[in-house]
Amino acid sequence: MDPVRNPYAPGAGQRPPELAGRGRELDVFDVVLERIARGRPERSLMLTGLRGVGKTVLLNTLRSQAINRLWGSGKIEARPDQSLRRPVAAALHMAVRELAPRHRAPDRIDAFLGVLKAFAQRSAPTGRAGAAPKLRDRWQPGIDVPAASGRADSGDIEIDLVELLSDAAAVASDVGTGIAIFIDEMQDLGPEDVSALCAACHELSQLGAPLIVVGAGLPHLPAVLSAAKSYSERLFRYQRIDRLDRIAADQALCAPAEREEVEYEQKALDLLYEKSGGYPYFVQAYGKATWDHAPRSPVTAADVRVAAPEAEAELAVGFFGSRFERATPAEREYMRAMATLSLVEGESGGVVRDDMDAAVPTAEIARALGRKPASLSPARDALIKKGLIYSGERGTVAFTVPHFGRYLRTQPV
Asked: Which residues contact 345 (CB under 8 A, 6 or more apart)?
């Protein structure tokens, strides 16, 4: 078949040709936007899930829904080494610029931009007394109005963020709409920033202000938020984004192919679901490789078997390998133990189940390595910081990447 017409798109945050299996999440967000438009109280939204399940794609799609309703919007990607102050200022600047042409009082927009500039210019803590701020912290926003004084410029991120978001919501209310801030990789925010964001969302929800935060992060994001503010469990609406069921996975493959007048045999779809596990990124990767290898329509199971090694080789380099290379030898040893423990043996000793995405008790990892649990804490904490594993429940860890355990067991020690 013509590779130029290949409809599948495996990529980081790249929207697939058919966004299958996410209708419920889109409908829920439509209700949220409509309720806020009618002055009804509503919570901010948090999307959680493993890597490769399409959180970023869904986040971008939700943003498009907000834009279609003429909301102001901005999106940022959290980083472990960066304060929230600069990126959230840039996102709000973008959101208010979208609303400004419809505002009847330009002075109100300028007043808010003055507050925004004061917030953005307030340097993040520099550590040592008298130390100069880093270059990235000396960023100047492209705002022509002078910085305001006495609002969102205290230097306390929690106080400043509450004031800034409250003022932004007031601007949106003036034009009869709302503002939505989208934050990807939200688990990477620092503790102070997470606490400030929770406090701001809490204040906005009490005021019924038309501003919401939509975050996306790894499965332990709820625990990160709860550690910052105990009330965060009731503050946000949490939605777990998981692998596609069989119907949705088939739709993700068949709908784009039908538009190109290509069909799949049922056995081919059976094998593709078995290989991909229903994870959206894997569905696209195997679909793309299969299309390029299939000589004609309909696509057969034999075509899938021929193409699978190429898809697996690409995943091994781009999806798994790049993450594996970031780990130190001690961290790799820790992850290999996790991968081994995910194999479930039967009574006769044979493997009956490869539970590669399940949580593993840290005590069992220590036992398997012949080490004391405390001695493995540095490796575990480093892997969590690098985003390779997460701790959803106390005393357990799991991979953030689907099928990572299977990949590790193919790597030489």
From this structure: 351, 352
